[in-house]
């Protein structure tokens, strides 16, 4: 038993949360050195799914002229139907609270079926264009399927695919039309406008994910999904904001500076509410990067030529101080959420 576990076990005993006999039983069990292979086995299952789906993609690519499109699509469809049939047959049905399969293999079978569905729809659209020139629908349909599977089977891996698909759909609906309509002037102002539209859409998507997390918590709908939604929202909003802080448009970068400040404040509170170290760390990183850019933009028109040597001297101290402060903040957060 490591010192960390021993310390907290003793703390439970000292607070009378466990009896002396329970403390001795826990200590004796941990001294046996028994460990679980659950995480390792799940990792191998996850890698198996990735290798299987990747192998199918390579097989299709290398033998597309030999096998034929109809045969490939038929095989994919049969595998998808078999996987989903087995999953639906052995699932507990939709429940608002957290649920798990009786056998962990089924969880990864859902993931495999979902990935194959995305491959099937993408290949179908590429070869036969059932959605015409509306390529966004080829992204939206598997996204809807992924959201359904994520909530019905309570699968976090599939949920990440669904959110990624939703982000891809928003990106497709904003930029390709402008690029194709202005292909001879790709770096013109219209393309810059399209990029700004994409940033606004990204922020709106992040806000939508936050609102959905709040609503889900109120109606007690898969509340354990909240951390995934918030993580995506944090990355999407922060990256979109930081990428616009270097904009030549003063109003634009100031607007995104406000967005980043508001986002940092919200996720600071959310990290404590969810006791999520990942949210807290990335919130600090994004806030630090954005804060430095904002300071640079504020003082960019001021002439510091007379004191530039002082800045060069203070710069190492600034970065070292930032690292020390970062470590202290992490320790403080870890201590507070465990209290």
TrEMBL record:
The chain crosses the membrane at residues 43-61, 67-88, 108-128, 134-153, 158-177, 197-215, 227-245, 251-268, 280-299, 311-330. The keyword Ribosomal protein does not apply. Keywords: Membrane, Transmembrane, Transmembrane helix. Signal peptide: none annotated. Residues 12-158 form the DUF2157 domain. This is DUF2157 domain-containing protein. It comes from Flavobacterium resistens.
